[in-house]
Amino acid sequence: MTIETAENKGSGGAPTRRWALVGIAVIGVALAVMPLAFNMFGRTPKGAVMIAGFKPYMISARLSGYQSELREIDAGVRQTDTTVAAYLGGGSPDRATFEADYPNFTSFDQQWPAIDSKMTGLMNEVQANLGNYLAVAALPSFRLFPWFFVIPGLLIAAFAIAALVRSSQWRANRWVLVALGVGLIAAPGVFQMFQRAPDGGRMMSAFENIETSQNVQQIQGYFGSMAVGQGAIRLEIVPAIEGSGLDASQISARFPAVASLDANWVHIVNDMTPMIGAMSDNVANYQAIASLPPFPLFPWFFVLPGLLVIGLSVAGGVTRPRLGFSGASDGPPIAIPVNQGVS
Amino acid sequence: MIRRLLAGTALLSFLALGVGGLASAPAGAASSGRHALVGTFNLQPGACFGSAVTGTYFRMIFPNGSVANGKFFDNPDSTCPNKAYTLAVPGAQGGFVTGKYQPNPVPAFNAQGGALADGIVQPQSFTAIDFSIATNQKDPQTGLAVPPPAISVKNGKLSGQVEAWSASWNKLYFNQGSPKPNGTTPGLTAPLSGSYNAKTHAFVITWTSQIVGGPFNGFTGLWHLAGTFHPAR
């Protein structure tokens, strides 16, 4: 039996439905406001820039190339430090003369082990996170992220508020809200966020010590040291070997690592400096993304509101007759059946 | 009556604006004694005499360094004993021109990343790769429109702007202007200053410009230009 009452006739439905709709509206508003609360509109575009900025370098072959370039520098430095130094010293074990003659190389030679260790470690770390980077890059653009909350949030709030204002819309709006809830739950699955977001979290953790101004400045300094060291080999030591009577082919045969470093130095600079630039340019972008909630939580930012919206929509739609009071007159209360559901 | 009132008001407004405008207008060339130097600043090549360096040269200061104490980036290809100085050789146009752009050629780089611009200075090797200078209508690093260099003199002191000053190296661009293309003066960026001898036309110009972005982000370029000014005809 359905009996119209003052409550469900024109003032927004029964208390349970009203409570549920208010809850749904609050969830919708919260979703819509969340990007503002986390400053996503300011931060996520920086994430998009960072992902795009790293793209040319986050290729397995290119990362391996950096590793081999570091090995090439290492080999050149070691050969200069040993066989070349012995050759230029006339076979004498006394390195004092060599060090006095080539102070720029000697200075670099002393710095190189620390530089090599740091740079190789860094490249290992980056290479280890290649898969994590690719997982994040495969997500929809970071620029869209705020809208993934704002648009469903506004829709949910709008349909809930509409049903609050006009209870007659509840039947139709209820199913729309359920559909929106299902959409929210499905979105992380569709975008594989449960796999990719934790990967992104691991990448962010790994880059925590890489994408800092201090680290970038240290690498810039290392580049300066490498340039000076290689310059000493290219402009002082190789000419000295040539001056001893060896021609280019003989140098290549006798000191292949030195010749190789000399020949490939420009390529190494071509390759390394843009990567240093990308690291430097993305420090602020990384910091912006790092200040968002942890990546692994993001799928739940969709799933939990989705479950709540569905749950409240279902709860708000339960038809459950109960005795209530009309409350419409000054006279004594009269018990009448109250419809809480859709008639 | 109303017409007369309106006419009187308009006349008063005109006079007030005119007087006020004269009072607040920037000092013109004639009244301030400041003269725009429009023409070519022919560059004197850089040269080292022991620790003394003359002519036109460039230095690069590490992040957190200072103009007075560095730390300076050593260019192993420098011909100076002090490798922190990279000397310049005048380009095909003798130097830089005010009131006009001297843009990058197309292409701006060779296959090795060496800069090809040779109007202002000849490309110079910097860590084995040539770098050079150009002034472009659109700054190639920031993509912002910039005015051509403008320099003026007052009582022998030079001032002005070189927003368009752009270094190219390794297929990368570094704005080295002062102020920067957005009008800011970040870090150690300092306005252009210098001296000018009206009789001999000899000039010395210096400025500093912090690099914003790229592999040398936070470094500051220190420019020292010397030579002789030739007015445009």
Brief account:
The complex is a heterodimer of chains A (343) and B (233). Chain A contains 15 helices and two strands.
Taken from the alpha-carbon principal axes, the silhouette of chain A is: rod-shaped
| Intertermini distance of chain A | 9 Å
Q: State the oligomer.
A: heterodimer
Straight-line N-to-C gap of chain B:
57 Å
Q: Counting H and I runs of at least 4 residues, what is the number of helices of chain A?
A: 15
Largest sheet: number of strands, sense, barrel closure of chain B: 11 strands, antiparallel
The chain-level mean pLDDT of chain B equals 89
Backbone CA Rg of chain A: 34 Å
Instruction: List unreliable stretches of 5+ residues of chain A.
Output: 1-12, 320-343
Number of strands of chain A: 2
Q: Which two chains share the most extensive interface?
A: A-B, 25 and 24 residues
> Total domains of chain A, how many?
1
The stretches of 5 or more residues of chain B where confidence is low (pLDDT under 50) are 5-30
Order of SSEs of chain A: HHHHHHHHHHHHHHHEE
Q: In order across it, which strands form the biggest sheet of chain A?
A: 1-2
Structural class of chain A: mainly alpha
The percent range for strand residues of chain B is 35-45%
Describe this structure as you would to a colleague.
The complex is a heterodimer of chains A (343) and B (233). Chain A has a two-stranded antiparallel ribbon. In chain A, helix 3 crosses helix 14. Chain A is built from 15 helices and 2 strands. Chain A is 76% helix and 2% strand. Chain A is an all-alpha fold and 343 residues long. Chain A has one domain. Chain B is mostly beta strands and 233 residues long. Chain B folds into 2 domains: 26 residues; 199 residues, no CATH class. Helices cover 12% and strands 38% of the residues of chain B. Chain B contains 2 helices and 17 strands. In chain B, the strands form 3 sheets. In chain B, strands 1, 2, 5, 6, 7, 8, 11, 12, 15, 16 and 17 form an 11-stranded antiparallel sheet that branches. A 4-stranded antiparallel sheet of chain B has the order 9-10-13-14, with no helix packed on it. In chain B, a hairpin with a 2-residue loop joins strand 11 and strand 12.
